[in-house]
Amino acid sequence: MKSALIIGATRGIGRQIAKTFSENGYRVCVSAKTTESTEKTPGSVYDVANEIVQNGGEAFPIKCDVRSDENVQATIDTCIEKFGQIDVAVYNAGAILWKPVVETPLKRWDLMNEVNARGSYSMVTKLLPHMLDRKSGRLILVAPPIYNRFFKGKTPYSMTKIAMTTLVHGLANELAGTGVSISAIWPATVVESQVTVVQKIPPAYYRKATVFADACLGIAEEKSEKLNGKALLDEDYLRSEGVSDFTKYRADPDKEPPRMMPKELPSLLVAEENDPPLSSNL
């Protein structure tokens, strides 16, 4: 039986990813910083794990503050000890502030960088020895594709998320042929979350979190390495796998939400793509 580690699994997308993986035969390590549900941050690792168990799945909760290397290592070690191996890990933890540079204090950027870029790097580097030794594993980071429009109005946040995408593109070169792959995934439309609840966004403007969770499951189940290094959008990836009816993902059953991501993304490849890299001795 396969096992999955979901970091950032207490609400919204993360909670649904944990549930979807469980519903499809995975044992799930439900991990996040939140261990107590409050009005401001409803849901905890215990709530999600209990929900999975009550529905017949196998899960256990563990607190993980991704800003602590020790916490990340302990989370991974505990998950391996509990389930024997980690077949897939999804990094959904995130810190967000969509403000321009002039309105983003360094302290807030530090927080976003620690949670987004550094936290994902910590998880990946601590999991790689385990997955490479097994010659099998899927790493999934919730991070966007790289294109200029994404930066507008939120450059500081974008710096920390694009760093995650750079990790995906770069590490993929090192993982080729190992049986381990890394991919990024991002929603094509707004997806239901605590933000949509707090901001009272009308359901016509977003999809259910199941669309994103189904895309993550598809990446995890991919037998080949064709998704290694790819920065995917949930809708486009699912369509590429034959999904054509998205009505089941509508939050408002009568309306298809508007797309927030470009229909086409620029290629990052260059003519010299396959030239040998510069010497590391420089």
TrEMBL record:
Coiled coil: none annotated. Residues 247-262 have a biased composition (Basic and acidic residues). Keywords: Oxidoreductase. Residues 247-282 are annotated as: Disordered. PANTHER family: HYDROXYSTEROID DEHYDROGENASE-LIKE PROTEIN 2, SHORT CHAIN DEHYDROGENASE. This is Hydroxysteroid dehydrogenase-like protein 2. It comes from Aplysia californica. The lineage of its organism: Eukaryota, Metazoa, Spiralia, Lophotrochozoa, Mollusca.
